[in-house]
Sequence to fold (388 residues):
Amino acid sequence: MADASILVVDDEENVAMTIRAILQLDGNEVLAVTSGSDALRLLRERTFDVVLTDLRLGDTDGTEILREVRRSHPETAAIMLTGYASLESAISALRAGAYDYLMKPSDVEELRATVARAVERRRLRQRLDQLEEVDRLKTQFLSMASHELRTPLTAVSGFIQVARRRILRELGGDDMPQRARDEATRAAETLELAQRQSRRLARLVDELLDVSRLQLGRVELRRDELDVAALVREVAERTRIADADALVELALPEGPLRILGDQDRLEQILENLVGNALKYSPEGGRVRIGARADGPDAHVTVADEGIGIAAEELGRIFDLFYRSPDPRANHVGGLGLGLYISREIVTRLGGSLWAESEPGRGSTFHVRLPLARVETPVPTGPGAATRG
Ligand SMILES: Nc1ncnc2c1ncn2[C@@H]1O[C@H](COP(=O)(O)OP(=O)(O)O)[C@@H](O)[C@H]1O
Ligand SMILES: [Mg+2]
Fold:
């Protein structure tokens, strides 16, 4: 371990100089001082990766140096040097914030190893701080960008609708020459296409917003009593309307499957799973959605006969931004957000979401959510106590 900056504090000059020489040989920048006051002055002026300090200094107590390190350079690793093999001094050093301690006179290898460990820890700490900062900035950026995109998008979509309605109203009258009527009809159709694309864009931006809200812990989920079977039926119906070629089959129980959950969010998750099932299947692929009660849970499955998922990817597809390297999945668009959002929400609702697949033959996604407990009426009134 080299290139670390180290401060050595020991009132015995030969000890300080020996330690300095040993650590310099490893390529470190080492400053050695023999008094507590010099050490405190240096600590006010600059930072070190590691501080080694004697417990008993002529003018100062070594724990004071440790405290100063902890106060003004919490990321610096401090090592206590002690001439006394006493548990008490070691404990007081660790309490004052020492990362480790060394007994004097210490073995050269032990000194080098202890310092190397402290430097390594300090490097990892710095790296962690950097990564945390980058992660924080990323989350912040995601949140700002998605909000900034949402506003003009809502306006664009609103203006398109207004323009289309105006044209349709004109077309409704009968004072328009045929040529203008044809033009207006085409314009209305074009606006319809623009509207569809802006809706698609809005869905993507909403997914980005969801990710940033989930990461900031700002997603509020409702816990309404609802029927999962009815929800599945609705989503299937909507899929058939949106995509006339979609082959969606249902396997549902006779009665309702009551759970406590968030209707909009559960629809979003089912739409996601059904959307993926269609997206990652060849044209005309069949999708089967099933729901049933299983023990204390409602168990929903969305099965397709599509390209499938390689075993080593099954755990990763729920990661943020994960998209399969499978070339058969590349022609379809997507940001790799849907499954991440879906799993986060299912988990927050007390359930679980996972996938199984036979590569080349299809995939099945499973959602389990606890069934709403049916309240058993508590017997009350005069006879209640005696009924046993
Ligand atoms: N039904 C499925 N069949 C095969 N692969 C799937 C299926 N659903 C999801 N995947 C894989 O998981 C990845 C992540 O899915 P998702 O989070 O919905 O993002 P996106 O669909 O935007 O890529 C997809 O890119 C795809 O590789
Ligand atoms: Mg998707």
Q: What stands out?
A: Confidence is low (pLDDT under 50) at residues 383-388. Residues 272, 276-277, 280, 304, 306-309, 317, 322-324, 329, 334-340, 363 surround adenosine-5'-diphosphate (ligand 1) (CB under 6 Å). The first helix runs from residue 13 to 25. The chain has nine helices and twelve strands.
